[in-house]
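Help wanted!
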Amino acid sequence: MAFDKMELRDVEVWDGNMAASQAMRQAQIDVVAAYPITPSTPVVENYAGFLANNYVEGEFVMVESEHAAMSGCIGAAAAGGRVATATSSQGFALMVETLYQASGMRLPIVLNVVNRALAAPLNVNGDHSDMYLGRDSGWIQFDAYCPQDVYDLNLIAFKVSEDHDVRLPAMVHQDGFMTSHTAQGVSTLDDDTAYGFVGEYKPMNDMLDFDHPVTHGVQTEEDWHFEHKARQHNDLMTKVFPKIQSAFDEFEKLTGRKYNMVESYDMDDADVAVVCMGTSVETAREVATEMRSKGVKAGVVGLRVVRPFPFMEVAEALKGAKAIAALDRSSPNGAPGMLFNELAGAMYNLETRPMISGYVYGLGGRDLTKVHLTDLYNELQANVDAGKILTPLQQFIGVRGPKLSFL
Amino acid sequence: MSEMKKIKNLKEFSTSADRFEGANLLCPGCAHSIIVREVLNATNDDLVLSASTGCLEVCTAVYPYTSWDASWIHIGFENGSTAVAGAEAMHKALAKKGRLKQPDRNPKFVSFAGDGASYDIGFQWISGCMERGHNIMHVVLDNEVYANTGGQRSSATPIGASATTSQAGSHSYGEKKNKKDMVSIMASHGIPYSAQVSPNKWKDMVKKIQHGFSVDGPVFINAASQCTTEWKFDPKDTMHIADLSTDSLVWPLYEIIDGHELNITYRPKNVIPVEEYLAAQGRFKHLFKDEYKYLIKEWQDRVDANWAYLQRREEARV
Ligand SMILES: Cc1ncc(C[n+]2csc(CCOP(=O)(O)OP(=O)(O)O)c2C)c(N)n1
Ligand code: SF4
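Answered by r_m:
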């Protein structure tokens, strides 16, 4: 090999951005096309550092915008190699057109989304509004709660995305600053083991196979468009879950670290449950444990996979609960929250249908504290005791001024 | 580098490599297909092609059919250049890593795009590709209008042309702004080669395309693409209109090497009046009304001035 080995300790102190860069390095990606935006910038800066010091080989294309970044990634992926990049917020928004184009052409690409609020007002801190913009774009979406998850899920994302039965791009999202800029101990794999797990890239329909020319990105009208979109959706809903599961299983065998599409915590006998994503999951788990000591049967359900939405696992995890809080870290802008809606959809046909209330929290980087969650669990317990929802359908947690709620 | 393809005559040229099939949905007489063929026929090397959204794209890759017998990709309206640049980057990366399936092949990377996709919405992407020095050729099929969406003006639409968003009417002579000088703008990036071509001058075109393929770095080609539908002329007259444009010097043929060395590559023996070019097309019909005749004179003056400017630049090597 022409590049130099980077020696890693078993545990490195990495922030989420470095964890993503290291996974990209170990997967030996062939092309990165990137454009900087806070808080995801260090992902590609770190990668440029690896390149400058000969720890990686390949092409790094510093393009002139995020739209071009994903455009370059699409061309590179269609040419038949491993591709990854990163973005946040406005950059993600600028990319949205190309996200649909990447998935519609069935091109494996890994995108690290370091979650950040969308302007206006301009804000560099974390919430989930950016990646919600792309949730219907046909990408697989993994959610990392901490730097360790970022590292692990990146390796898993390459494997799932590039699987020839899947051939769909994948995002790994992490909370801006809270995960991306917070250093923690990350258990590492050595380079060979990590690359061995991800596997060699096996091109399919690549443009550099000149004996088999291919046409990518055709035009369809009502005669074929529906078939393409329906197939793509069906593949997402049927083929991706088992591939993710087997990648999780293989990863567990290799590392002992177990991932689930839906991460249940103390849910076996829970009466009240909080459903959330990202860094909030760990805070919620801590509060749930404290609530248990006070006699409240509290549990937490964290989403690990947002797309395809693991509706069966979600319903299964929550079927025993009596009252549920769906925590949305994005402004619903005229509807109940995304998580609220999706949970409601997943659980509507359950025999025992739990009460669900929607909470909007943490916009623009606002903290979700243990006090907020304690109050929330108490509220859920009060609903259980009353046998009905006592509070509005949707509330905002920790917003200043008059209490804002809906219904 | 691969050997340059030798082409003796037009007959041989027209029947050589057929990697763009005649079977497509372009209008009869559309110059897009002629230009594409001329570009592809200039080389025997393998090709990685892209097309931006526009007439060429929607007429040549309608599922489950394709007119392309070469690697081809369409992403969107604006980013065909960057798609090809991404593929070129992947080719470099795989070459470095020793993972090319066919390491002995020497592919050419070409993006085709309309004037809308190049002068307007895709401008930034092309500029980025040129500045970064990708080894790609961007070919503009410049029909001076957004043809695929029904003939709206673009920044390549010339003064006085009637387009659907700059219509000639009782109070308007149509487009009010003059065409953007894309060749100069692109040459200003300091790229190794940029040129203006026209399908009627196929030898000149082949020479320029082959030169473009032989240099290392980005190449910009602006091709006059006569559009029967939006320019309103008879489909059999495509080459006639092209002749009128090159011989009236409305569409001068020249090249710019390394961003500054300008060479005029075609000097008509008999320069014809611009009026003849304008009169042959429905989009300029209204200019022949008495009240707008002054614009025909302005046209002629502008074309003369531009020709003088090109000659001065050629002489001065700037
Ligand atoms: C982002 C975006 N905006 C608008 C369009 C609509 N659109 C498709 S093709 C086209 C015009 C193409 O014109 P041009 O690039 O000059 O190519 P031509 O059709 O004339 O060959 C437009 C406006 C689009 N596809 N995508
Ligand atoms: S509208 Fe013009 S550019 Fe489009 S296919 Fe017809 S002739 Fe060609």
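OP: Thanks! One thing I noticed: Strands of chain B lie at 47-51, 71-73, 108-114, 137-142, 168-169, 172-173, 193-197, 219-224, 254-257, 261-264.
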